[in-house]
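Severity: low
Component: inverse-folding endpoint
Summary: output formatting inconsistent between runs
Steps to reproduce: submit the following structure tokens with default settings.
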């Protein structure tokens, strides 16, 4: 590899000038379905129960046991298909996917292969290839030296997770950047949460994502050799993992090498990408139809039942917030794609019958001021700020009973202690100052204390006003109205 190739690899933006490489990304998402029982047996799903307490002969793969497909899982699969606009296959079948691993007691996983439940569709700008149902594997826990058995490091297995219903959603390779991939995955997660088919918790593994990544000359239609990045469990890791893999392939290609088809692991701690297995070692799964299960036949009544359970989905909600509520496209998207924010905003919006401020102003306070004061990813509904409190606060600011600066202080107090904005304004003496003599006196003092700045403003440099306004806001504890302060400054400077 030459140094020049290295340099150009870091400076070539994806989708950039001719000769540049573009990334082609497809995702495979495993979603644990929130059914009561497992995919093929009556064991209840496990939520942290003691290991190996939610098992039976079916999910342990004991000889002679017979699986029965979970109707609720099929129902959820159909709802996902409807949400993605997929074609619901009138008939789909289960296959045995054979491989040996300690987390798979039967020696095969029951999955769907060439006749999946749903085909095609799209979400946002990304096309869906297919959606199929399968069962989850058990959980291997590597206990290492602490569990040494006969002198070897040990792994132990908990079969509670084995047999949990999964929907696997496979996209077409329509994504181009790591940011786009994680943004799209957020949209999918919100959609699935809204449907109520999964609790979509990435940290706990109920939503897991693999990414297929290849590079090709920008604008080319042929696909390059792809690698698969396995099992990423946070939006941040997905973005970082894909970015690292794109950089690795780019360096390889620009250095004259070739990408080898393989399955990779991204270590979020070190940022390193390691190979799990190459194509040569790839499993031959020897798929064959599961002889113990009947084909799944979808009847109109099942589709009607799935349709009846559909709720407003994020894409439709964004459109409604934009068109009917009058929000900007950006705010509408943000609130719709982060459903918990949207719910909170709509509760706040409904709290005031005749709001003094436009809905967009309320949206700005919720998505900007409030969210920035909460912990990352914290649901505002679980904060101390009740929706009616932020609605009242925005009203007070809109009617100029409190300045924007004082409104922010009230919000600080609401986040810390909860309560009622008007009571906080009264208790803290945060009501807006009227323009009168008191404010004029403070402005005069501010001009005197910042004589240099005052001169520069008078000479035509409006940006020099900063320290003067800062002085006034400090003296008035932010209660002064910014417009009025600006007017007084200009009046007293005679400009
Ligand atoms: Zn079972």
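Observed output (run 2 of 3):
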């Amino acid at each position: 590899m030459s140094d020049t190739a290295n340099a150009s690899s870091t400076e070539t933006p994806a989708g950039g000038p001719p000769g540049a490489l573009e990334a082609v990304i497809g995702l495979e998402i495993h979603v644990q379905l929130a059914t009561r029982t497992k995919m093929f047996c009556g064991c209840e799903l496990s939520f942290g129960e003691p290991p190996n307490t939610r098992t039976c002969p079916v999910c342990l793969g004991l000889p002679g046991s017979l699986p029965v497909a979970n109707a609720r899982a099929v129902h959820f699969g159909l709802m996902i298909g409807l949400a993605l606009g997929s074609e619901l296959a009138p008939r789909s079948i289960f296959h045995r996917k054979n491989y040996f691993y300690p987390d798979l007691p039967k020696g095969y996983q029951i999955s769907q292969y060439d006749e999946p439940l749903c085909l095609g569709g799209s979400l946002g700008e990304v096309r869906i290839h297919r959606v199929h149902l399968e069962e989850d594997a058990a959980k291997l826990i590597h206990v290492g030296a602490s569990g040494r058995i006969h002198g070897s490091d040990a792994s132990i297995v908990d079969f509670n997770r084995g047999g949990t219903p999964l929907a696997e959603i496979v996209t077409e390779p329509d994504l181009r950047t790591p940011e786009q991939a994680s943004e799209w995955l957020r949209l999918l997660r919100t959609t699935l949460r809204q449907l109520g088919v999964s609790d979509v918790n990435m940290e706990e593994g109920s939503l897991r994502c693999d990414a297929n990544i290849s590079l090709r000359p920008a604008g080319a239609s042929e696909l390059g050799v792809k690698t698969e990045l396995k099992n990423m469990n946070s939006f941040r890791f997905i973005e970082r993992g894909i970015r690292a893999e794109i950089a690795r392939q780019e360096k390889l290609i620009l250095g004259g090498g070739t990408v080898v088809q393989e399955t990779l692991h991204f270590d979020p701690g070190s940022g390193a990408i390691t190979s799990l297995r190459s194509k040569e070692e790839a499993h031959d799964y020897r798929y064959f139809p599961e002889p113990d299960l009947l084909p799944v036949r979808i009847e109109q009544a099942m589709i009607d039942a799935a349709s009846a359970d559909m709720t407003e989905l994020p894409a439709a909600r964004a459109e409604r917030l934009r068109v009917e509520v009058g929000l900007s496209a950006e705010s509408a998207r943000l609130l719709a794609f982060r459903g918990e924010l949207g719910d909170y905003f709509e509760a706040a919006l409904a709290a005031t019958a005749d709001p003094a401020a436009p809905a967009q102003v309320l949206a700005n306070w919720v998505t900007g001021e409030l969210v920035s004061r909460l912990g990352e990813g914290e649901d505002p509904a679980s904060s101390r700020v009740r929706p009616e409190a932020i609605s009242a606060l925005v009203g007070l600011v809109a009617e100029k009973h409190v300045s924007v600066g004082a409104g922010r202080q009230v919000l600080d107090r609401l986040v810390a202690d909860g309560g009622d904005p008007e009571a906080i304004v009264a208790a803290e003496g945060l009501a807006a100052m009227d323009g009168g003599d008191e404010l004029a006196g403070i402005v005069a003092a501010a001009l005197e204390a910042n004589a240099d700045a005052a001169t520069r403003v008078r000479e035509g440099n409006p940006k020099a006003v900063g320290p003067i306004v800062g002085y006034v806001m400090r003296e008035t504890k932010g209660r002064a109205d910014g417009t009025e302060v600006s007017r007084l400054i200009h009046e007293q400077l005679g400009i």
